[in-house]
Amino acid sequence: MSTNRHPIEQEGVMAYLDGELPPDQAAQALSHLELCHECQTLVAEFRGVSQELMAWEVESPEVGISSEINVALGELLQKPEAARVGWPRFERRVLTSRWVWAGALAILCAAVGLKFTLTSHNRNDFHSTTYPSMVSIEQYLMPDRNAEIALARSAAPAAVSSDAEILVLGWRGYETAIQGKNGFVCMVERSWMSPFSSAEFWNPKVRGPICFNPAAARSVLPLTFKRTEMVLAGLSKAQMIDGIRAGFDKKELSAPAPGAMCYMMSRAGYLNDALGHFVPHLMFYFPLTDKASWGADLPDSPVTLNPQFQGGPEPITEFVIPVGKWSDGTAAPAM
Questions:
Q1: In total, how many domains does the chain have?
Q2: CB count, 10 Å around CB of 150?
């Protein structure tokens, strides 16, 4: 891996998985991993090998040392002279047994190596072919409505989410499950809110609890509605991109309002296969702007440019700032 193409080396990826990166570097790693298929595959390899090593148990052999060898050993210890006389024959037996066990060990090693090789190939295939298109809508829905409400609320501290409007995803799109009082809107985003270039754009496991403040609810949330509407209508990515551009051209969609931001502080979310729930963070939305205006992605800066809309049809710049606690007030793991 070259830093010309990747802002993090392999050692950095491993440090990210072990929770050893500081928040600013972890956020930078997240932004890169969301778009880089090669690094997503590397993360999956690291996690897969770790899980297999933890789960691998060496079973005791069903057959022990042959009774003939045990008898021969006993005779050797009890009758040294006789053993020395019969040594060539015993040696042949021991050597034969050694070759048998050596062969068995070689077969075992080859089998383990083959398993890792096949697992590696299967994992690569998984990341390249598992989510090529949308699956049935049932796989994106949460059958337990109350569970989705609770997950949506977990996006922000209770002081915010307890009086927020709560949306849940249904067969026809997002619908209001609980009326709000403070202008905030909490919901659970699905995979199609990822960058259009993301390998996990159609991943049915993605659950992204998010809570928009009033400014973002007015100006950014309509993008979620628009994408979801087109997804449920069966449109392709290309058609969705055209539809979003047309929405901005016709003023049906607007640039982020001043002060637009959201909370993503849930410890129960699942952003994608490579990142899991990541870290609690806040996101801030702006019309297209240079990331240097916020000092994003600079060394030791806590601000990172989020790739969600980067290079997409939405004229939006989005910044991420990690925070130290989950929405329930507990400390997040050190990154």
A1: 2
A2: 16
